[in-house]
Structure formats: C-alpha cells, structure tokens
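User: Just a sanity check before I run the rest of the batch. Below are the structure tokens for the first item. I only need the designed sequence back.
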C-alpha cells in the first residue's frame, strides 16, 4: 500500500521493534503512530477537554468525508488536501517524545468520546466506522491479513453466504488495467478472504493459529511476503497440510456444496458425503473442481462430534452409537466455507429443532442462508425456503431476523414482476407481524440494543408489504415529525420517510426536500436523499434522478440518491435510462473511481428481463470504461440468474402463497 508521506531514497527506516522496546523500557503508553482501539481509556478529563476533543474528532472525520467525495482519490487535488489536514491534525507522528504522546493521547481518547457522544444510532455508527476506517488508512500501512481478520469477526455471519455467483473470484486476481484496481476490492474478494481465514482458524485451533500468525508477523516484519509464506507459518505451527488445503480455496473460483444423506447400519449411523462446485445458475458442476474441505459433524449434545478432511468427491462416514432419531448437522457454527445440502429426511429433523429454537443461532442463520442460495440456484424449489421461513416466526435474535428480512425482501422483489404480488405481500406481513408487535414503535427503558436495531427492520418489512395498520401509524408519525410536534426516532426515519413517499407523492416529496435543505446534520441529509427515490409516479422519479446531478446533492451522495429509485420496476428502467443519457457527464464527474463503479452496479443489476443484458452490453461497447468492465459482467450474470429464477419459480410461489395453511 502506498501513502503520501514517502521517505527519501537511502533514508534510514525506523525499526518498529526498537520503538516497542524503547516504549516498554520508558513506560510509554502510546508507542506507535497507529493505535488499535481495543481498550477504553481510563484517565479523568475535564468537561471542556471532553467537548473540545469530541468536536475536533467529528470535524476531522467530516473533512475526510468531504475530501473523499469532492476529489478523485489519489488525484493531485486530493493529495494536496490530505497533506493539509495531515499537517493540521498531525496524523503522522513518527517519533516517541512528550509531544508525540500528547498527540497520540488526544487521538486515542477523542475516538472513544465521539463514539460515546455521537454514534447514538445505527446509521451514525455506520458513518463513524466508515470515516474512522478512512482515517486509519491515512495513518500508516495496514497489513492485509489484519484487515481480513478484523472484517471476519464483524461481518462474517451476515455476509458469508452472499457470494452466489458462478464467477466468484479467486482471492488472487489478475489486473488487466489500472482502472480495475478500485473494482477488485469489493465485498466478494474481502468476504471470501475473511471466510477462508475463519475456516482455517477453526480448523487448526486458536493456539496454533496465534503461534503461526506470530511467527509470520515476526519473520516477515518490514518485508514483502507472498500468500504461501503465511500458509507455511501456519502449517509449521499446526502440523497440518495448510498450503494444500488453502490452495484449493484461493487458487480456484467459487466454493463447494457438500451434499449429505444418512442411513442406518445396525447401531451405526452411516453418512454419505459428496462435494461439488456450487453453481448459482443451477448448471451441472464441473467435475474438475475439487476442494480439500475441513468438515465437522455435530449433534444436539455434541456440536463437534466428528471432524474429517473431505479430499475426494465422495466419502462415507460411520458414526457409532448415533441413532436414526438423533439430529445431525454439518458445519456447526457455520465456520466452514461451503454450503450444505441435506437430504429431505435430515432436513425435516433439523427443521423440528429450528421450530423449538434448539438449534444454535449461528446454525439457524446458516441453514436459512444455505436454503436461500439453493432456492435461487434452482437446486431446491423456493417454496421449501418459504416453508422454512414460515417455521421461523418464533425467532428471537436480531441477526437471524435481519437475514430473514433480506430473503423475504428479495423474493418480494421477484414477485413484484408477477400477478401474484398481493398474495406474497400477505405472506410477508404474516411472517413479521408477531415480532413487529413484540418490538413495537417505541424504545423501552433498558431495552436490548439488538432490539433497537431490529425495530426499523421489522417495521420496514411491515410497511414494505403494505400493512395498512403500520402504514397509518407511519403516516401520523411522519407528519408529527415534519410539523415538530413529536420527534421521530432517528432509527425509524428512513423507514417512515420511504413508506410515505410511496403513497404521499409530491406533497411528501416537497416536505422532505425542504427538510433536507434546512437541516445541518449530514446523516439526516443522506437519510432523506436515499428515501427520495421511493416515490412511485414516473415524473417524480425523474425529478429525483435529475436532482442527483444538481448542486443540491454532493458528488459522493449521487449514487445514494439514484439507488433509492430502484425499488420499483419503473424506477429501475428510468434510472438506467438516466445513466445512459447522462453518461458523459457522470464519467467526467467520477473519472472511473469507486463511486462510478457503485453507480453502474446498482443501476444495471436489478433487472429480471434477459433482454436488458443485450441493452447493457451494447451501451458499454459503444461507451467503453475499463473501470466497470468487471462490474458489467457481474451485473449481466445476476440478471440472467434473476430471470431464470422468476421463470422457474414465479408461478409456483404464487400458488403456494395463495394456498398455504
């Protein structure tokens, strides 16, 4: 990774180990320019300093956000402004003395103060994490391994199973043009890297992983490395064939699906376990793809009953003393990077546990996500997925509900292109009515923070599926908020704004545009900007799209404004036409950066008609743009998958939702 402050050729590099040794001997609290915020500060500070540090930190993050949105990253103007704020806020302090300790202390404490005083809801927390990440990148070199490991524990459970494409990246990607670099570092690459590292950590154990990682970081400190160097260090620490296993995941695309069936042989439970490449389009797997998969089998009483390496296309596993009535599950905890396809008999046993909440939360989450992916791929009927969701309405945990909400919304998007949409919306209301009634509109004293995060999700699902009771309450709360008679919780504003724009038309749009201009809170502006596209009238959608290119919307918020218009079939059509008609101005505005990639991705991948693939390819053939070539290929594949899904399951879903019990 390259940074602005580069040393002159021949300049002596500071030895980090010497810094740490000196810091230890001198009892220095902040030995390095970059400090990990893993412990809360414990000292006493005055109220005036509290206010000063928090406001200065917020000002710094706002400046970073502004610069990243206004200027092309790594362009000359961007570098100039970054140097200015780096000097002003003293971001680079490469020495250990009293002055540097004061600077590092203020950096450390101000982070926690702002988090305490400012990040009071999910959107503000998300904004702060995003800007703090940008700040961290400006402060020094970050090891890719550490980035992946941090990402792993924060996002894995909710992001692990979103990589559905046949064209999934290897974790080592060839770059054909410099403009592709921004495009390569996407959620697929990061999430796959994080997922296989977590699988590896679980496979070799915590102690061996720590020893191997310590050996790797020590041996290659201040040196360039290759992927194999990490595998070699972990292999030496664990005594297991790490390089052989991990090469099957890092050097070939995609991941495996492990199919399992069960039978009894006397008192022995015999499992037949097969592996093949998971193809999101449901096409026959290529037999040349094969992985060495660390597989764990668990029971209700022993989540780690048996572990083995699946290194052939098919293996038989014998479990002594396990009866036919005992429920078995593969990949307990869902730490392995593979999908599981159960036989019908085994799945029925597992669903019995799901209904009673006897399966662990991570296993409930993983099971649902596996079924969702298999339904999209056509491996199982989507009605199997819906039956599973219907059996999970007694779920209690935020993480699982968030995943359920995502799949229910995805199928809702699918069904919006069919005449069966009304019956599906009733299904959606029935799924979320119980938890929405339990959570309610208002925050309770002593409420679990996860319930606070769950509230906008379940209320959003009720309004998305047009529950009249919730829409009426949302309308009342919206106008009370606009008139200032009763302030609406920040967590619910986006949901309420969107629901009212769908029904209130021009009147609601004008009220929110006025509020957007009057508020000085950037997070409220972004919330409104994203909601604006929820209008349904074509002329209002077009007005919002034109607004996205105006001086009223910052450059970095343009894709947010356009993305808000994609909730309806008409909105998708108008947004794509808008991008085509304004392509030259948009391309000149973003100059191939990540904002352009995001805009192209969101306006091309939401269609369910294969004719759009030809339209998109023809447009970019006559308007070549290297930075979005990979994105276009992914979007076209997604359209093909969605079109197949609609054609394959649309009518069956409609029949099931009308006749369900």
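Assistant: Here's the designed sequence for the first item:
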């Amino acid at each position: 990774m390259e940074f602005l402050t580069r040393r002159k050729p021949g300049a002596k590099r500071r030895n980090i180990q010497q810094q740490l040794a000196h810091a230890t001997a001198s009892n220095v609290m902040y030995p390095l320019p970059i400090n990990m915020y893993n412990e809360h500060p414990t000292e006493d500070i005055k109220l005036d300093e509290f206010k000063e540090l928090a406001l200065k930190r917020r000002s710094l993050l706002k400046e970073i956000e502004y610069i990243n949105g206004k200027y092309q990253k790594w362009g000359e103007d961007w570098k100039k402004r970054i140097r200015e704020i780096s000097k002003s806020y003293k971001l680079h302090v490469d020495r250990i003395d009293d002055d540097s300790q004061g600077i590092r202390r203020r950096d450390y404490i101000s982070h926690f103060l702002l988090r305490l005083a400012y990040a009071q809801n999910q959107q503000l927390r998300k904004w702060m994490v995003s800007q703090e990440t940008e700040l961290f990148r400006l402060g020094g070199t970050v090891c890719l391994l550490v980035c992946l490991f941090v990402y792993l524990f924060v996002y894995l459970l909710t992001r692990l199973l979103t990589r559905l494409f046949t064209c999934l990246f290897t974790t080592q990607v060839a770059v054909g043009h410099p403009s592709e670099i921004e495009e390569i570092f996407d959620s697929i690459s990061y999430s796959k890297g994080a997922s296989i590292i977590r699988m590896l950590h679980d496979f070799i154990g915590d102690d061996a992983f720590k020893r191997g990682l310590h050996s790797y970081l020590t041996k290659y400190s201040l040196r360039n490395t290759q992927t194999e160097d990490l595998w070699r260090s972990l292999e030496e620490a664990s005594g297991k064939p790490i390089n052989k296993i991990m090469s099957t995941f890092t050097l070939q695309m995609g991941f495996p699906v492990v199919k399992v069936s069960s039978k009894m042989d006397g008192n022995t439970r015999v499992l037949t376990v097969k592996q093949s490449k998971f193809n999101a389009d449901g096409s026959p797997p290529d037999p040349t793809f094969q992985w060495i998969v660390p597989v764990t089998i668990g029971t209700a009483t022993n989540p780690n009953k048996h572990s083995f390496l699946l290194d052939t296309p098919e293996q038989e596993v014998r479990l002594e003393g396990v009866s036919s009535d005992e429920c078995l599950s593969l990949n307990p905890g869902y730490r392995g990077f593979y999908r599981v396809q159960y036989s019908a008999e085994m799945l029925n046993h597992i669903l019995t546990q799901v209904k009673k909440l006897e399966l662990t939360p991570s296993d409930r989450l993983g099971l649902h996500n596996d079924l969702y992916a298999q339904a999209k791929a056509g491996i199982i009927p989507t009605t199997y997925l819906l039956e599973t969701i219907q059996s999970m309405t007694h779920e209690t945990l935020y993480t699982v509900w968030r995943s359920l909400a995502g799949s229910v919304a995805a199928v809702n998007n699918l069904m919006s292109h069919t005449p069966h949409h009304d019956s599906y919306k009733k299904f959606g209301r029935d799924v979320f009515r119980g938890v929405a009634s339990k959570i309610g509109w208002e925050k309770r004293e002593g409420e679990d923070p996860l319930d606070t995060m769950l509230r906008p999700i379940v209320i959003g699902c009720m309004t998305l599926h047009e529950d009249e009771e919730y829409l009426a309450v949302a309308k009342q709360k919206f106008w009370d908020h606009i008139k200032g008679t009763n302030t609406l919780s920040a967590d619910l504003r986006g949901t309420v704004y969107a629901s009212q724009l769908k029904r209130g038309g021009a009147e609601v749009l004008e009220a929110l545009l006025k509020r957007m201009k009057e508020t000085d809170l950037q997070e409220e502006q972004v919330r409104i900007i994203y909601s604006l596209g929820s209008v349904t009238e074509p002329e209002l959608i077009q007005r919002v799209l034109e607004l996205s290119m105006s001086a009223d919307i910052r450059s970095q918020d343009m894709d947010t404004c356009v993305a808000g218009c994609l909730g309806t079939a008409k909105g998708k059509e108008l947004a794509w036409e808008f991008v085509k008609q304004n392509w030259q101005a948009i391309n000149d505005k973003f100059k191939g950066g990540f904002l352009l990639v995001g805009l192209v991705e969101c306006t091309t991948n939401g269609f369910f008609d294969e004719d759009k693939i030809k339209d998109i390819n023809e447009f970019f053939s006559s308007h070549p743009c290297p930075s979005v070539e990979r994105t276009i290929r992914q979007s076209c594949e997604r359209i093909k998958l969605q079109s197949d899904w609609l054609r394959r399951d649309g009518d069956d879903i409609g029949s099931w939702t009308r006749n369900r019990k």
